[in-house]
Amino acid sequence: MAIKITKKIKSYSVQKPEDKAAAETAAAAPVSAAPAVLGAEIIHMHEKVERPESLVGATYKIKSPLVEHAMYVTINDIVLNPGTDHELRRPFEVFINSKNMDHFQWVVAITRIMSAVFRKGGDVTFLVEEMKAVFDPRGGYFKAGGVYMPSIVAEIGSVVEEHLKSIGMIVDPELSDAQRALIAEKRAAYENRTKKKAVSPEGDLAVDAGRSSADEAASQSGEGASFPPTATMCHKCSTKALVLMDGCQTCLNCGYSKCG
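Above: the chain sequence. Below: its structure as C-alpha cells.
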C-alpha cells in the first residue's frame, strides 16, 4: 500500500512488535479507567449542594454596651469530600439569636444574605472586610481586651473572621518570636519608666493604687490584657495599647511604631 508524503521528513524510526502492543494497551487504558476518574470527582461549594441532615458549627457570644441583651452568632459548616485528601470545611449558614427585638429586621436580613453568599461558594472572605467597615453613627465601643468595634455589624464581621480562621479559610499572620520579644521588652521598659517617675513614697502609693484599681476594672470588664490607662487606640490593631516612648508612639499589643 502506497502512502503519499506531503511534508518534509525530519526523522524516522522502525516500529517493532512490542511497540505496537504497548500502543494498543495505552489506547485501551483510558476506557477502563474512566469510571474511576468520574468516581473521584472533587466536589466544590456551589448553590446546588444540598443541605445534609446535620451540620457542624460553633456559636459565638457578642455582648455590646449598645444593646441590653447579648447576641449569639451560630455559624454552621458543611464538610465536602469527607474522608479524602480533598476534604474541606466551608461555611453554609448563619443564625443570630437575641432577646433584644430592636434589631430584628436587619438581623434576619443579614443572616439570609450571608447564608446565600456562603452557599454560592468561592472566596467568601470579602464579607469580613465589608462588615468590619460598617460604622454606627452613634459611635462605636471597646469590647473585652480593649479592641475597638465601630458597630455591632463590625463585631459580627469579626466573629465571622475568627470562624473562617478556625476552619482554615483565612490564614492568621501570627507574630514571630522576635516580634513578641520586642513587644515584651517595650512593655517592660514603659512600666519601669512609669515606676521611676514616682519619686516620693506617696507617689509610689498613688501609682500602685491606680494600677491595682485599673487591673481590678480590667478584670471586672473581662479584658484579656491590661494596658496602661493612658494608652490610646492603635489604628493598626484597634486596641487601646498605644503609648508614648522616647518621643515615639508605640503599641504594646501588636508592636506597631510610628517611627518604624
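The chain has six helices and eight strands.
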